């Protein structure tokens, strides 16, 4: 059936076929018990990757769908839980039944060229949802596939690979591990890294020990102004190396900060600018949530480098809004640095123990959340037709979120920030971050 996107072009999908691991991977009754960090995040993340037809290769494009589908059957031998399905255990937790039920795979055609898509780094659900397969008849999370794939070919010869993956199975690093292994197999290469599937390394302690006030840190007690400022809009802000150098010079002018990372500098800048753009009352609390990859933080014992699952934790900065807006930018930088430095092995173990007792699920509160994707190896995803020319998410949470990507400006050596804010706040914000 053909589906017309809001901007006028049509995509025609074939019927979904079920792709299973091509060889037996595990006993059909095996269950994978997800960690508490996995339980915390369970939305379906939809991503798209665009590939243009190579200039020096005008053959073989008809085989794109077949090559990627056959490689999927092979990679599922190693990442076999993705072909299973979710269930609830007797103690009320999410568990994956490794049944090799399979992954829905769809081939599609678009009646236009790839350039119609424009810059897909900025989410456009009305268009991009057509490039990812989601069965509209299935709304219960336990009935949804853990993974779906769609390959859409365009008139110009390029194609888009769209993927929907349940976040409870993998964070960004693990998702890239999976897709890079998939693309290596598509090129006829053995996967360079095989996944460590067992999640027991992130079990809670007995008895659980709370070393930090996790609930208090993440509980939102800040007054929301979002509803009064209109719908959320997303914009890209590019910071090349010259802008980043100027920003760090400003931060270090008063001598209180001797050095800081690009992530910390940009996070402090947009946190303060967002607070000012909202005309926040000085007596209010300004709040910032940071997404931290815990892989390098875990020491006792360290995680296997090829661990497949969620290892991200959230931590929070809170301060008086008046101080944030009026004091030098170095003040915000120091707060961000100190907050990140609190995330160590004990913080993560304490968080896991806290989730064991509370069974808390993550929900975006009315504040700013910042996450860096600069280390995700999108460019390595070559299925045999070159690296993706661009990639992006179909949707983002409709709250104030910021994601950092590698590459900015002509040199592509800086950092690009994708940010969502209410319309009226965005107008002021753009002026406040000029460097």
TrEMBL record:
Cross-referenced InterPro entries, in alphabetical order? CAT-like_dom_sf (IPR023213), Plant_Fungal_Acyltransferase (IPR050317)
Which keywords describe this protein according to UniProt?
Answer: Transferase
- Signal peptide bounds: none
Gene Ontology MF: a single term: acyltransferase activity, transferring groups other than amino-acyl groups
Keyword Transferase recorded: yes
State the family it belongs to. Belongs to the plant acyltransferase family.
Protein name, as recorded: Omega-hydroxypalmitate O-feruloyl transferase-like
Q: Which organism is it from?
A: Heracleum sosnowskyi
């Amino acid at each position: 059936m053909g589906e017309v996107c809001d901007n006028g072009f049509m995509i025609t999908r074939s019927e979904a076929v079920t792709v299973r691991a091509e060889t037996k991977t595990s006993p059909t009754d095996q269950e994978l018990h997800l960690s508490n960090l996995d339980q915390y995040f369970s939305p379906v993340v939809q991503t798209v990757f665009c590939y243009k037809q190579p200039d020096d290769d005008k053959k073989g494009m008809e085989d794109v769908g077949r090559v990627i589908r056959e490689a999927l059957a092979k990679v599922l031998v190693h990442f076999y839980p993705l072909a299973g399905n979710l269930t609830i255990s007797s103690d009320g937790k999410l568990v994956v039944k490794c049944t090799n039920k399979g992954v829905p795979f769809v081939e599609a055609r678009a009646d236009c060229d790839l350039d119609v898509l424009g810059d897909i780094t900025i989410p456009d659900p009305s268009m991009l949802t057509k490039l990812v397969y989601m069965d509209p008849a299935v709304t219960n999370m336990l009935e949804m596939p853990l993974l779906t794939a769609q390959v859409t070919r365009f008139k110009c010869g390029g194609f888009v690979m769209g993927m929907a993956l349940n976040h409870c199975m993998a964070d960004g690093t693990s998702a890239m591990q999976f897709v890079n292994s998939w693309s290596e197999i598509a090129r006829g290469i053995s996967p360079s890294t095989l996944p460590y599937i067992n999640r027991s390394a992130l079990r809670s302690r007995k008895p659980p020990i709370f070393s930090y006030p996790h609930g208090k840190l993440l509980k939102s007690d800040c007054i929301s102004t979002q509803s009064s400022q209109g719908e959320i809009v997303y914009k890209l802000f590019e910071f090349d190396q010259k802008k980043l150098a100027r920003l760090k010079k400003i931060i270090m002018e008063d001598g209180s900060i001797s050095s800081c990372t690009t992530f910390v500098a940009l996070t402090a800048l947009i946190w303060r600018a967002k607070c000012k753009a909202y005309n926040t009352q000085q007596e209010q609390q300004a709040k910032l949530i940071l997404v931290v990859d815990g892989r390098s933080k875990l020491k006792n014992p360290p995680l296997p480098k090829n661990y497949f699952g969620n290892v991200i934790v959230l931590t929070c900065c809170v301060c008086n809004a008046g101080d944030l807006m009026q004091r030098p930018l170095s003040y915000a930088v120091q707060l961000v640095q100190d907050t990140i430095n609190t995330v160590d092995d004990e913080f993560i173990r304490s968080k896991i123990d806290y989730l064991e007792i509370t069974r808390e699920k993550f929900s975006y509160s009315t504040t700013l959340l910042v996450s860096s994707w600069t280390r995700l190896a999108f460019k390595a995803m070559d299925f045999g037709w070159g690296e993706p020319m661009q990639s992006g998410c179909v949707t983002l949470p409709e709250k104030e979120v910021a994601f950092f990507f590698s590459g900015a400006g002509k040199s592509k050596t800086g950092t690009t920030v994708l940010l969502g804010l209410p319309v009226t706040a965005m107008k002021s914000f753009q002026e406040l971050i000029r460097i």
